[in-house]
TrEMBL record:
The chain crosses the membrane at residues 86-104, 116-138, 150-169, 190-213, 253-271, 283-304. Its cofactor is heme b. Its main location: membrane. Heme binds at H251, H312. GO terms for biological process: heme A biosynthetic process. Pathway: Porphyrin-containing compound metabolism; heme A biosynthesis; heme A from heme O: step 1/1. It comes from Methylobacterium gnaphalii. This is Heme A synthase. HAMAP family: HemeA_synth_type2. It is found in: Cell membrane; Membrane. Keywords: Cell membrane, Heme biosynthesis, Iron, Membrane, Metal-binding, Oxidoreductase, Transmembrane, Transmembrane helix. Pfam families: COX15-CtaA (PF02628). Catalyzes the conversion of heme O to heme A by two successive hydroxylations of the methyl group at C8. The first hydroxylation forms heme I, the second hydroxylation results in an unstable dihydroxymethyl group, which spontaneously dehydrates, resulting in the formyl group of heme A. GO terms for molecular function: heme A synthase activity; metal ion binding.
Amino acid sequence: MRIWLYLLAGLVVAMVALGGATRLTGSGLSITEWKPVTGAIPPLSAADWAAEFEKYRGTPQYKILNDGMGLDSFKALYWWEWAHRLLGRLIGLAFFLPLIVFWLRGALDRRLGLGLVALGVVGAFQGAIGWIMVASGLQPGMTAVAPVKLALHLTTASVILAGLVWLAAGTRSVALAPAPGRIRAGSVALMLLVLVQIALGGLVAGSHAGLAYNTWPTMNGRFVPPLDVLFATVPWIENFVDNLTLVQFNHRMVAYLVVILAVLHAFDARLSAPGTGAARRAAGVAILALAQMGLGIATLLLAVPLWAALAHQVFAMAVLTMATAHARLSRGHVAVATAVGEPVVPFGFEPLAGRTT
């Protein structure tokens, strides 16, 4: 089961990577309809391709950015988006079919079963969130999806990844002692902060704020831009989404916060729990956070080339995976056995065992 969960986590990372490539190539709006079942079949004839191309030619993106595009160029866009949606469908099958098998075999206890059901519900909603995101880019005057919806889509995928890693880390058959309380709290704080940073990164990607200031460590000579620039939009709350200066500034500042917290946490773990798995995991999180910051700086200075932007997005998933595994294992783990030798009742089989709770 642990192998299955980690394989699912790997598929989610691949989905994030493919989604990033779809966004960076401008392919996300090439399929203008949401057909969860029949949409798995791509155009199979010249007439089918002509019909799909005609639908795309009615979108604002085509009229504003791609007017005059040929059919071959459209096909290149279409295949990126189609592959992204197909992988989403395959992930759904790879999740639900083995889940049914494990459930029927009685391999799920209550905690794991409820966790998997919750992830299944979030995953089902993720498909709808993806379409809501695409639909926002098909509105009049839009040439790309709304940044907030893109950030929500990316963050939801990240939550699913974190959930899979959390559950997988908790399926170990050997007991593990919990880390000291401060290490446990710090590990959870790090995991949550990484999720916040990924959401802010989604806003940067969706609004192309990474192209606004391509200098470091300052933003065109200022470490902190003037307040009248950071909050130039009225009402002020919209600056957090629409003001490219504030969007990039927030992403930079939280990146510094992640790295500082990760390094301090690693030193704390080394001093308070030397030689333990918690200390090694904390060091791993700090190293990955530092590497991710370096990759982010390179992406910024190079004016966001496709390869660097994609690597930065995928490596964020590596940081999240490590931070999540660290947070879960720092809680400790009890071996799957009872003190009196009574077998654990599998999830969903309580009535058959004469139990109602």
